[in-house]
Design goal:
Layout: H1 4-17, E1 27-30, E2 35-37, E3 51-54, H2 57-62, E4 66-67, H3 81-96, H4 104-111, H5 115-126, H6 130-147, H7 152-158, H8 167-175, H9 179-183, E5 190-198, E6 201-208, E7 211-218, H10 221-231, E8 236-239, H11 247-259, H12 276-287, E9 294-295, H13 296-302, H14 309-317, E10 330-331, H15 344-356
Parallel strand pairs: 2-4, 5-8, 9-10
Antiparallel strand pairs: 1-2, 1-3, 5-6, 6-7
Length: 363
């Protein structure tokens, strides 16, 4: 099986060659600038140590990177680059005014378009509606202010939430805890974590007293620990250690055995942390039988939101529980793999195993 390092080496070669054939297969982001690009971007490539790869542009955007203004990585193949540039400018406008009331008519007027045309164009380029984009930016700002130590009340109004009456309804699901607890960076929570080599690469699992809250593949233990610490900067992160006993060690062993073909996907207690919509999507995915697949459109319909296809795809990209929430079973309508935050090679391996094995591993 091709390793993740081999895949990244091939991707880096494509970036250095500015290979247009690689456009659409992956994007790369530059940690020092916060920008992500197509492989064919004409800009001078950054140093390799500052570059990270994503399966899709949506994955890079979800990780907090901004689209490059030279190569327009959010552009749909064949789409007018001028329109893409305009939509990216409108995304920047929403970010700058996220704390204000932004009715569709105001945004459309700013773009010089009809509301219908603007809504459709913005969604096609960014993958989410203007309203969803603003909500995500407002939540990002709210989380940032809480992390900076501001009081919950100050953070609520600074981020543009007009009152406290509905703030818990609007943001608590996106935090996975109360705003006060998130402001404290998970203070008071103990999160136990462990790392194991698996058939699909290095994997970290972490759990609270409620269940598994984090399952990620990565290149190194340090990088995985950094990801965990960014979500819970003030939680007590406790390494389980190589000789750990107790539930986490047993859960890691069960998942590792599953990935090696020695057992079914373990049914573990999960501490799901996301918006109400994301959790609905994740729970629906968990109901899809091994060996079966769904399109993003079917996924959206399955959670009673047939028009929220791109939001359903974004929920898959936001999944923190690799394999346990089987977002690898969601594909594009044309049967294409789509994106996968842990690499398309892993997604393909999981799907191939499910399709060819009727008993044992994925039963």
């Amino acid at each position: 099986m091709t390793s993740e390092s081999d895949i990244d080496a091939a991707r880096w070669a494509s970036v250095q060659a500015r290979d247009k054939e690689a456009d659409g297969q992956f994007t790369y982001a530059v940690k020092t600038t916060g920008v992500f690009c197509r492989p064919s971007c004409p800009a001078k490539p950054a140093k390799r140590k500052n570059v990270t790869f994503f399966g899709t542009a949506s994955d890079a955007a979800a990780a907090g990177y901004r689209p490059c203004r030279r190569c327009h990585p959010l552009a749909v193949i064949g789409r007018d680059a001028q329109q893409t540039s305009l939509m990216e400018a409108m995304a920047a406008y929403i970010v700058a005014h996220a704390g204000e009331v932004l009715p569709l008519a105001r945004l459309a007027d700013q773009a010089g378009m009809s509301p219908f045309h603007f809504q459709r164009s913005f969604t096609a380029v960014t993958g989410v509606s203007p309203k969803q984009f603003q909500a995500a930016e407002r939540l990002r700002a709210f989380k940032g202010r809480l992390r900076d130590g501001k009081s919950v009340l100050s953070a609520i109004f600074d981020a543009g939430y007009g009152s406290t009456s509905r703030v818990y309804e609007q943001v608590a699901g996106g935090l996975g805890m109360t705003p006060s607890a998130y402001r404290d960076g998970g203070a008071g929570e103990t999160i136990v974590h462990a790392v194991r080599d698996t058939a699909l690469g290095l994997l970290m699992m972490a759990a609270t007293e409620r269940g598994v809250c984090f399952v990620q593949f990565g290149d190194s233990e340090g990088a995985l620990l950094d990801q965990l610490a960014r979500e819970f900067p003030k939680a007590h992160l406790e390494p389980a250690g190589p000789a750990a006993t107790g539930p986490l060690d047993a859960w890691m062993a069960a998942l590792g055995g599953h990935l090696a073909g020695a057992g079914p996907r373990p049914d573990l207690p999960l501490d799901l942390r996301g918006t109400a919509f994301q959790i609905k999507v994740w729970r629906f995915l968990m109901s899809v039988k091994p060996g079966e697949i769904v399109s993003y459109a079917e996924l959206a319909a399955g959670v009673d939101a047939p028009r929220a296809v791109r939001a359903a795809a974004s929920a898959c990209a936001a999944n923190r529980l690799a394999v346990l929430v089987p977002c690898h079973r969601a594909l594009r309508a044309d049967g294409g793999l789509g994106g996968y935050r842990w690499g398309l090679a892993r997604k393909r391996a999981l799907l191939d195993s499910e399709r060819t094995t009727s008993i044992g591993l994925f039963k």
